[in-house]
Each structure stands twice: as C-alpha cells, then as structure tokens.
Specification:
Two copies of one chain form a homodimer.
Chain A: H1 10-13, H2 15-27, E1 29-31, H3 32-38, H4 43-55, E2 59-66, E3 69-76, H5 78-99
Antiparallel strand pairs in A: 1-3, 2-3
Chain lengths: 102, 102
C-alpha cells in the first residue's frame, strides 16, 4: 500500500501549475492575462509555468492576432485534463488518509 | 474571491514535504528510515526536505543515541500541524471548485 504522496507528479502538483490546470478546467480556454490575474502571477512566472505544461503536453497555446493586439489563448489538452484528474484523485486519497487518523 | 491555489504555500505543498507532514500526522513521531521507506525517498532527498521543514519551524528533529546506533526522530511541531491543516483546507477548496461544488 503506497502512500498517496508517491503518486503526485511534480509537473502537475506544483502550486502554480495546479492553479493553471484548475483555472483551465473552469474556463476550457483562457486568455493569458485572465489566468495571470486569477492566480495573481507576474507575466514571467506564468510564461515559465505554461512552458513546462506545454512541454509536457498538458496545455496547448494559441496566438490570436486581431487588429494590433495579439492574444494568447491557453487550453488544457486531453492529457492535461487526465493529469489534473489523477492529481485530484491522489490528493483526495491523501486527505482521507490524514482525516482517518485524528 | 481569490483562487484557492493562491493560498497554497510551497513550503508545505511541495510533494515530498506534504508527504512527510502527512506521515507525521499519522505517526506523531517517526524514525528517519520509517519516513524514507514510507515515501520511497533516498536519504539525501529526505534530509534535504526535512531541513526545509525544520528551518520553517514545521518539524522538530531529535537524535536518540542508544548503544552504537543513532536514531533520528522527526515530529511535527504545533505550527507544522496547523500548516498541514491549512494546506488540506485549501486543497479541499480547490477540489470542490474543480468539481463545480461551492
């Protein structure tokens, strides 16, 4: 019986990246600045974490050039949604385990 | 209404350290090798994370020299227990939010 903490994956578990995937779960596709403001991040910090998630195939990034403004849209891939599910499953297990022994 | 991910603290949220605090919640005081095996860590990795938790005042480390063996006992401080509680509270909120429950 392995400890649920063993099943947490740093790519998804890291605080900011977990926040990004949670926001994308609510919004399906979100504008870069929307995510930045929702999680109170700097542009640089958000970019860095989105790059890690993109590299791992968990999010997709698309640029939308309309007029003189470029917007960056981020959405979770199917793999990203499964990864969030797996993370939340392990967290629920960890919480139940802690709750089971007061 | 801030996102629950904003309330996660890296000191406690980091995968290995969350595991250590969860194990200490179950065991009150645990031998170094017990934690290492429960979380499938190397000695070096566990030492490093225990040092971070000790530095933050979340765990207490005591050496017990009996005969020719030295055992290292780790326990959560009161502050460590509160920090784990706060982390689990934020995680529960994050999970409910993803699940679509208020």
């Amino acid at each position: 019986m392995t400890h649920p903490a063993l099943r947490l994956d740093d790519t998804v578990h890291q605080r900011v990246r977990l926040g990004i995937l949670a926001v994308l779960h609510e919004a399906a596709s979100a504008d870069f600045s929307y995510i930045r403001d929702a999680l109170d991040l700097t542009d640089g910090n958000l970019s860095r974490h989105i790059a890690v998630l993109e590299e791992a195939g968990l999010v997709k990034v698309e640029k939308d050039v309309s007029g003189k403004r470029t917007r960056t849209w981020v959405s979770a891939t199917r793999q990203g949604r499964s990864a969030l599910d797996a993370e939340l499953r392990s967290l629920r297990e960890l919480i139940s385990r802690v709750d089971g022994k007061p």
